Structures are given as structure tokens and as C-alpha cells.
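Sample intake sheet
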Amino acid sequence: MKTAKLCAVLASGVALCACATLSPAGTVKSRVSADYEAAGGISGMRAFIYGRRTVLELPSRPLWLSIQDENGVTVPYEREGRYYRLTRTLDRFTVRANTRVLSFSRVTERAPIAANAPLNADPASRLRPVNDVAPPTTSAARVGAELTSEEDAVALLRIAVTQLEEVRQTIAAGGGSDAEATALNARLDRIEAQLFATGTTLIRVQFDTRSTDFRPNDEFVRTLIPAAKAAQRINLRGRTDARIAGRDDPGIALGRALAVRRYLVDHGIDDGKIKVFARAAGDFLAPSNTDAGRALNRRVEIEFVDARYAALKPQAIRGSGTTP
């Protein structure tokens, strides 16, 4: 009798362990990013393709984390804040974080789908952006129709010129050394020359202290989305206001660039033409010892490569711009 009870206890223990470790079979899959869908307790977890690697985003640091590919092979990773950069790109993988088990699968269909929305949900729910990007009040379709031909390029160049002037005024207001001001102004001269002589243009979007939330206003979006759709290539460079990188700064810089990438992809931009870069400290645009300068340095630079910019004349784009 005692032997029978002991066997029953052991059997129930094995069953519980199996429930705690097996991937959730039959669970409804949800789109968690433009790159992956997932099944399981996915609340707050996301995955993206970043260059040649998969990046996992977790809402908090787990006490125990294990990642296996589709063959059950453990995949190493590097942690930067809440981001876990895997050593390669994965099509299918399983994440075990504390007691949670999640199965991720790469998707090829690019339509933006709300995080945690079942794949058979109402079609209108698929047009909502993912949770950590502020929902725009202007639809992507309407945005694309409002600017045509060269209008989006002219509007974008006006933003770039206005932003450069704002930075020059901040530098002129003082706060840094004469040598630093000279170096910063020389950099602005190179950027401005690039606007008129090459097929690229550069604008910036700013972030609050330690924040990775990208929440552009509608007026800025009306220029951003058509210009991004028309560009042959887009480079995103995440920056902080740190002189020396702290523990969280690499994740903040990368998180800012990824937030802009997610916003663009969720609004119909081909992710194949977007490249993401990040630097945790330095590379300042303005003096870093004033509040105004630090605000300008907390940024993502968005570089658009588009042959139209080289053909536009300087006098055609002079005028007031729009800031995000």
C-alpha cells in the first residue's frame, strides 16, 4: 500500500514537472512584433530581428532564463538592460523564464498586429500598433496619401534645416568650451552640406531622460511615414546624454533605436531597408553640460537615403519646419 502511494506521488511529481517545462501546445499564437509570433505566457515579452541576431525583450530580469532553438540546443545571449541579444537569428525557439515557457516563431507576413491579439482576431485589431508605441491618431493610409511626389522630401529637408538651426542656437547659448563649440559647429556644417550635396538627409527625434518611448505627434508623422516609405535605406542611430556609459546606457541607446524601428515597421515600412545602430555614450550633438544640450543629445538620428534629396535646390527647402 505504501509502495503504491509512493509511486502515485512520484508520478504526479513527474507530471507537474512536465507541465512546467513543456512548450504550451495548442495555445493560440499572438503577434508580438513585426518579426515574431509567440504562444504561452507572453505578457510583456517581445522578440525582434536586429541585424543578424534575434533580440529578446523582457519586462523584468528573470531569476532563471534559458533559450533553446528548435533542435533543443541552448543559445547563448548578451544582456543589455531589458534586452537579450542572441548569438544568431532564430526562426523558432523556446524561452524558459522562471516558471514561464514561451514558444516563438518567425513570421514572414509584415502587417502590423497588436501585441497579444490572436491571429484570428477581428481584422481591425491588426492595424493597432504594438503596446509600447503610442497609437497614432492619423491612419498610416491617410498619411501616405497626404504627401506625394517631392512634397515629402521637401518637408523632410525643412525639418532637417530647422533642427540644425535649433542646435546652432543651443551651442551659441554657451555651456561648453570654445573648442567644443567649434567642433560641434563644424559637425553641423558637414551635416548641412550633406543635405544639399548628397542623396541623404538626417533628422533627429528626442527622448526623455532614461526613456525609450517614441511618441511622435501627428504633424511630424505626416512627413515621417511618406519619407520613410520612399527612402531606399534608413539608418537609425540611438544615443544617450551620458559622457561615460553606465550599466543601463547600452540598453537605453539600443532601445530608443528599436522603438523608432518598431514604429516605422508597424506603419508599413519594409524592415529590410532599416539598419539599427547604438552608442551608449558620447557622440554629442550639443554641449552636454546644460539641460538644453542634454535634451538634444538624448536622441535617435534617422538618416534617409533617397536620390531625390541630391536633386532638390537649397532655395526650395528653406522655410519653417516641423519638430516631433
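Comment: The chain is about 35% helix and 20% strand. Residues 113 and 122 are 11 Å apart (CA to CA).
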